[in-house]
Amino acid sequence: MPGPFCKINYTLNTPRFFNLGIILLFIIIVILPILFMMVAPFWGQNAYHLGTLFDERHFGLAKNSLELAVGTICLSLVIGIPLAFLLSRTNLWAKNLFKTLYLIPILIPPYIHAIVWSHLDSWISQFLSLDIHSLYGAIFVLTLAYFPFVTLMTISGIKSIDRNLEEASLIHHGPWKTLRGITLPLALPHILSGALFVFIFSIIDFGVPDILRVNVYPVEIFIQFGALYDERAAAMLSFPLITITLILVMLQKWYMGGRSYVNLTAGSGKDITYHLGIINPLAFTFCLIVFSLSVLIPVAVLVKKAGSLSNYIRVLNTSIDQITYSLILAVLGGLLALFLGFFMSYIIERTKSKVVICLELASLIPFAIPAITLGIGLIKVWNRPTIDFVFRCPLIIILGYIAHSISFTIRIICSGIKQINPHLEEAGFLGTSSWTKVVGKIVMALLTPSLLVGFFIAFILSLGELGTTLLVIPPGRETIPIKIYNLMHYGADQMVAALCLILVGITLAFSAIFLGFYKRAKMFLRC
Amino acid sequence: MKRLISLLFVLLLALGCAKEGQKEVVVYTSVDQVFSEPILKDFEKKTGIKVKAVYDVEATKTVGLVNRLMAEKENPKCDVFWNNEIVRTIVLKKKGVLTPYNSPSAEDIPSQFKDKDYYWTGFAARARVLIYNTKMLKETGLPKSIFELTEPKWKGKVALAYPLFGTTATHIAALYAILGREKAEEYLKALNANKVVIVDGNSVARDMVVKGKLPLAFTDTDDANVAIQSGKPVKMIYPDSNGIGTLLIPNTVALIKGCPHPDEGKKLIDYLLSKEVESKLAFCESANMPIRDGVKKPLHVPEFSSIKAMEIDYYKVAENLDRSARFCQGLFVR
Predict the structure, then answer these.
(1) Which of A438, B21, B48, B297 is the 20 to 30 A CA-CA neighbour of A257?
(2) Mean pLDDT of chain A
(3) Statement to judge: residues B134 and B114 lie in one domain
(4) Neighboring chain B residues of A482 at a CB cutoff of 8 Å
(5) DSSP output for A140-194
(6) Is residue B1 in some structural domain?
(7) Are both B139 and B37 inside the same structural domain?
(8) Which tens digits make up the pLDDT trace of A218-265?
(9) Facing A213 at nearest CB: one of B67, B77, B334
(10) Are residues B111 and B138 in the same domain?
(11) Hey, is the C-beta of B95 within 8 angstroms of any chain A C-beta?
(12) Between chains, do A213 and B164 touch, taking CB under 8 Å as contact?
């Protein structure tokens, strides 16, 4: 695999007005609502001072949040790394089946994991001696939802290792020493990137701690909004989350260098394979337990709760509009996040300017913005008589989806662009003066797998989004997550379970289609 | 690319970005969709005015709509706010989100349930009650007052929804208003010392009693009634009939200042405040108690006059909401 390429010393021939347009669009859609919320506390008569808001209790909550995030990272590493090694370097039984299935848990929204495990609280306390309504319970549930990030990134890391190094080591040392001394250290940047994603997701997550009744920092932000109606204090409480996320993402970016983040199907079967021998049953059992806890049990509980087929039919009859509406919005949100994310990434990676560093930093901020803060920011920016049409229609939800998911899309596409030699583009410009042809036929073509992953992540995040959507959804409309939470309040467990299963089914169907496209794109590039 | 952009544009138009010509009214409601939607549909049928609703979600998340209304204040999108309680409507009045409307349908509603300047009107009340499991507790040993729950015999046996949100927050603020800050905080500390079990919402508290995990819980009449009507082994206690009385929490309805469809909004308010709607809310699973005479109701819904209602100034409750929430935040850290 080619190494990272340096930034080139000039701006490629994308027209300056186009670049400015894209940057402006990014600022208006993504940065402005966030900036509005971040600056507002310091404005006006009752301006806040940072020191007056934070007290001892916040440090206690921050400690809980850090424990939750670090605990989730540790458990995710304990599960995710061995799983990645088993799936990429061994002759594990049913390896191909597990390789297809291990990503399913991240396709199930975390609040659904939490709903399921809180139904099983007595079982889990009896067999695992774990109180699900505790910090450890939340760590358990968040790990089951997010460990595939570690596995995914570790597999990508292992696949990108030069096999000659491992083979050289194997001549003199055994497999264990090679794994410990060569494979693991070389895959470490990827492993840590996976851990970072887990950290960000678990430290800003509100849904799981809320359902499991664990007091963490985001709950405090929610209380400021929901109980005290102080949106400015709530926005200010987001500062530590933004700061810590920015620092970590910058550190990780520096450590990752130019490596590619995700490589779902890398390798062509020529990898080194360790034979597990007598421990194969043990390894198989480990994978089976992980898969059971993260997929089989949640789905089985939902199927049992949902009851007979007539419940699914009832849910489909009453929710078909919401399902269609959610799908269209998530596809549009994914496409537009992809469009903006691609050109932003292209500007970031192919332009040498100090402005780009600011842009790159700005593109990381949405990682740490709580959904409700983003929602209020969107209302403040877009709810104006002159641009009324934006707020009156679903465009506002799509803008929310873009802001919510664009950090991930940009990070993935940026790492993809790093792998493309800029000389290819230079060569392209020798043949044509049209920048659209060069970008379209060279860059986008070579980048197809990254673009697909970027779209897919934006689509999945949009489909499960609740906090922002509730604040900006046009009257008379509903999305699937809103419907699920509505039914939860009423106590319609059967319908909640059936609708959760339908949501998971839709996500899986789309994932299967996506994986098909992704594999074809990879094969095409290899040819 | 051009084709893609055209397609996106057409899809957005199809999704409802185009302006519509039909008469319509926009309502934000925190009343459960299963109860409010049929009533709004009936209004549509009767008047031909299309109702566009935004429903709030799960119990502790009833923050969305109030925050949304405050954020939209400069350019309101909503005409009518139909709240399933009263205190947050008063918060909205204080924030300048509401405008007065004296509905003709509200003439016979008692003055304690109306704003004196007509910013909001109450109807169809719920009560804060205790729910108990009939298999776990005998009639003779039941508590008559919420103040008995600090006694050792109830240690670790009572569930209370997280008191920062919803009607539980209102209940605590009402105790502040009626007892004074010092006594209310003393009571809360005693409850906490007696290991009251804090749960996520009133429906969760009810479910713990239904499943027999705890014998007793604070909840609302609508949550309790859903369980009673489906034959679960639970009953309700209207507490403090010989003391401070039971807290009644009416639904409230209010017109939004500067709303886009004021005439249609007023028609919807008139309809919601009618005896017909109050009766429908009494007959549905939420079993709301009519707050005026002459409204048809099922037998299991008590007469307003048969309950000793807590004599409370709802404005004082709203004033105490912030203070009581902050105290509970410190006391009941999960």
Answers:
(1) A438
(2) 85
(3) no
(4) 55, 57
(5) HHHHHHHHHHHHHHHHHHHHTS-HHHHHHHHHHS-HHHHIIIIIHHHHHHHHHHH
(6) no
(7) no
(8) 878 877 777 777 778 888 888 888 888 888 888 887 877 766 666 555
(9) B334
(10) no
(11) yes
(12) no
- Backbone φ and ψ of A475, nearest 5°: -55, 145
Q: Considering only the beta carbons, identify the residue of A231, A391, A491 that sits closest to B77.
A: A391
Answer whether residue B11 is part of any domain. no
Please give the residue of chain B at the shortest CA–CA distance from A476.
Answer: B52
Range of the domain at B230: 126-247+316-331
Distance CA A121, CA B331 (A): 25
More reliable by pLDDT, A432 or B24: B24
Residue with the larger pLDDT of the pair A164 and B81: B81
CA distance B93 to chain A (A): 13
8 A C-beta contact, residue B159 and residue B218: yes
Structure tokens at B228: 């009673």
Chain A: residue nearest B34 by CA? A490
pTM higher than 0.90, yes or no? no
Q: Higher pLDDT residue, A386 or B194?
A: B194
**Predicted complex ipTM:** 0.78
Q: Give burial (CB, 10 Å; 0-12/13-18/19+) of B99.
A: middle
Exposed e or buried b for every residue in A10-30, given b needs 16+ CB within 10 A? eebebeeeebeebbebbeebb
- Chain A residues closer than 8 Å to B330 by CB: 57
DSSP assignment letter at B212 = T
Report whether pLDDT(A199) > 50: yes
Closest chain A residue to the Cα of B58, Cα to Cα = A489
Q: From the list B15, B54, B91, which residue is nearest A229 (CB)?
A: B91
Here the CATH number for the domain that contains residue B154 is: 3.40.190.10
* Cβ proximity of B238 and B307 under 8 Å: yes
B311 assigned to some structural domain: no
Give CA–CA dist B159/B217, Å, rounded. Answer: 4
| Chain B residues 2-21 with a CB less than 8 Å from chain A | 4, 8, 11-12, 15-19
DSSP letter for B290, please.
P
Which residues in chain B have their CB less than 8 angstroms from residue A389's CB?
A: 17, 19
Residue B53 C-alpha, separation from nearest chain A C-alpha, in angstroms: 5
Contact A394 B329 (CB under 8 A): no
> Are B329 and A488 a contacting pair at CB < 8 A?
no
B290 and B191 within one domain: no
Within a domain: B76: yes
- DSSP state letter for B288: P
- Does residue B106 sit in the same domain as residue B237? no
Residues B195 and B62 in one domain: no
Statement to judge: residues B111 and B169 lie in one domain? no
Distance of alpha carbon A457 from alpha carbon A204, whole angstroms: 18
Chain B residue whose CA is closest to A228 = B322
Q: What is the pLDDT of residues B36-53, one digit of tens each?
A: 999 999 999 999 999 999
**Can you tell me the distance from the alpha carbon of A503 to that of A510, in angstroms, rounded to the nearest whole number?**
11
The total domain count for chain B is 2
B204 touches chain A (CB under 8 A): no
- A36 pLDDT band, cuts 50/70/90, is confident
Which residues 216-245 of B have a C-beta within 8 angstroms of A? 226
Of B15, B19, B55, the CB nearest to A328: B15
Averaged pLDDT, A90-118 = 88
User: Locate tokens 């020191």: which residue?
Assistant: A51
For residues B95 and B142, membership in a common domain is answered with no
Which residues have C-beta within 8 Å of that of residue B210, sequence separation ≥ 6? B133, B227, B232, B233, B234
Is the CB of residue B164 less than 8 Å away from at least one CB of chain A? Answer: yes
Q: Which long-range contacts (CB under 8 A, 24 or more apart) does B238-242 make?
A: B238/B127, B238/B129, B238/B302, B238/B307, B238/B308, B239/B129, B239/B130, B239/B143, B239/B144, B239/B145, B239/B146, B240/B144, B240/B145, B240/B146, B240/B147, B240/B308, B240/B310, B241/B144, B241/B307, B241/B308, B242/B144, B242/B145, B242/B308
Element (H, E) at B127: strand B121-133
